[in-house]
Each structure stands twice: as C-alpha cells, then as structure tokens.
Model the fold of this input.
Amino acid sequence: MAIPLLPAPRRKTRQVKVGPFVIGGGEPIRVQSMTATDTADAAATISQIRALADAGCEIVRLTVNTPAAAQALPEIRKATAGIPLVADIHFNARLAIEAAPYVDKIRINPGNIGDEENIRAVVERANEFDLPIRVGVNQGSLERDIALKFGGRENGNLISPPEAGYSAEALVESALRNIEILERHGFTRTIISVKSSNVPLMVRAYRLLAEACDYPLHLGVTEAGVKDNSNIKSSIGIGALLLDGIGDTLRVSIAARANDEKVEEVRTGFKILQALGLRRFGIEVISCPTCGRESQGFNTAKIAREIERIHAGRTKPLRVAVMGCIVNGPGEAADADFGVIAAGKAARIYRKGELIESQVPYENVIARLGELIAAVDDES
Ligand code: SF4
Done:
C-alpha cells in the first residue's frame, strides 16, 4: 500500500469571508486568538487586541458577555480598525444583536444560546451586516438533550450514564443540528468548531464532521491549560487534523491573562503551521539537541535561545539552523536561510546552504548573524 504524502491535500470547503480574509477553500489557514480582558474595560481590551495583532494574530475574538461589554464595542472597533474582530456570545442572543455592527463575525455556542428563535434573531442580524457565524460547539456545554443522549455532565453534575461521558458523536450531532437550523434560515456563511479538552475525542469529532459537511472548520483544543500543556495538546490535536488536510483556521488556547503571555497563543499557532510546512511566519530556529560531540566553546542551546529571543517579534519568515558540530550541520543548514555550524574552534556561517563565512569566533556568532540578517532584510 502506498503511504500518502503528508500533509494530505487540503479538504475542499466552502469559502466564508471574515473581514478581509477568506476562510476555507484552500486559502491560508488563519491564526486566531482571544482577549482575556474584561471587554467592558475598553482600554485594556484595545491594548490586548493590538498586542495580539502585533504578534501576527489575524482574527481576534473577544467576549461580549454583558451590556457593558457590548457598549464598549464602538470604542474598541474604532481603535482597532483593520483587525477582524469576533464577538463571542454565550447565553444571550440579545448581545449578539448589539455587537453585530462592530464586529466581523459572531460566534455562538449552540448549547447555551437558547431556542431556535434566538438563533433566527442572530441570523437576521448577521444578514443585516453580512457577517459570518461560527457555531462553536464545546464539550463542556452541549445541548441538554444531546448530553442526555450521549452521556456526560451538566453544570458539573452527571446527568446520563456515569460511565459514558460525552463522545465525539455528541459534538458532531450538535454541530450538524445547528448547521441545519442555520440552513433552514437560508444561512450558509458558517464556520464550525467542535472543541474538547480531550485530544483524541476532539480529533475524532473533527474528522467525523469533516466527512459530514463542507463548511470550513475552526480548529482548537479547548481548556488546554497553561503554556507547556497547551502547546503539547494543541500541537497534537490541531497538528493531527492539519496533517489530514482538515482545518481552515485555528486557535491555540493558553490559560493566561497578560498581553505578553497571551501572544504565545499566536506564536504557537504559527509554529504548528510552520512545523507542518503549511505557512511560514517569523523566526524558526532549527537546532540540534547537542551531545558530547558539540565543539568546545560553542553553546548551541544558548545561541539558539538568543536568536529566538532577539527575533521574537519578527513576522517576516526566517529559518536559522544552529548546529553543535559538523556531523549534521551542513545538511541541516542547506534548508535554512542561515546556518551556523560549530567547526572546531570557530563557526561557519551558511546562507541557503552555501558557505559564506568561516572562522567566525564563537563569541561573535550572534552579532555577525544579526548583521547578515539585517543586510538581507534591507535587500528585500
Ligand atoms: S550536530 Fe553534532 S553536537 Fe549536535 S547533536 Fe548532532 S552530533 Fe551532537
């Protein structure tokens, strides 16, 4: 049996416009994030939206959870013009109606938005402003009848066979039901997510959903925890689906509040896409793990960390390989924009696989590389 090339060809989906971006239909996979501020605090929210956008975030979601949050939207919209915003709505369809003029997309959670009448009201408002809707199904808040059918918890209490727990099928049933409701109202500018904190369950749910419809999918592992845990769960869950060719936009969820922590969601999102060769963005450092062969006086890990730190804010793609000796060095450097390889008592620097400098003293490597990168940036 022939082993297919990976990533698999992208799943063919409908296209849905979100602000300036088209999601789906083979368009670039867009990286999203969400603010952790109180939306009613417009200044803090504007600051975080800008920090996320500066880090490369392409679509920013913010909760619209109270009338005060909805009232802050005009000011937030004005101060963040050009950045696509998504109103995240739970429980209260009225807030979606208030938010619509100031955002580029509405996300609703079908498990808590109420009856079909509420969905119809949101659809009418979305049509009025030509907005798409994301149906964001979450394992933690499914519709009660689906929870009862498939088992699981409601408000923390077991409501259906204790041994069952929700299944991927439950998430998909919720998604398909809501697609059908939207279609009944003639609405097809829909993006879907079926998130869970359980990675195998989430992967299965998205795979099932991908077979059952052709709407673009928003990928994410929800409640993924703090940075390290989230990076692992998100990389496995989102990465597995992207390798299948599934996924049109993504969000990495990290438990964090401060701007400088929140931007890690964006960096990790791009790193996942970068690792799969689906998009290139910012700095990518390839470095060997080092071993007893590392040339004396060269510190691969320190140099790699330092390059990452110096170029952390970069958005233009740049791949740098840092290798501790010449065993694998030239081979790895061949695929990088720049390669730094320890070779005895000094380093060699390669550009796109070609040796451009040798005998660079180890203590000068970072500075010299910085000059070379700046020169290339100036050229382009
Ligand atoms: S490149 Fe050299 S130093 Fe680095 S892990 Fe391989 S053999 Fe060891």
Remarks:
- The domain at 16-275 is CATH 3.20.20.20 (TIM Barrel).
- Residues 288-291, 293-294, 323-325, 327-329 surround iron/sulfur cluster (CB under 6 Å).
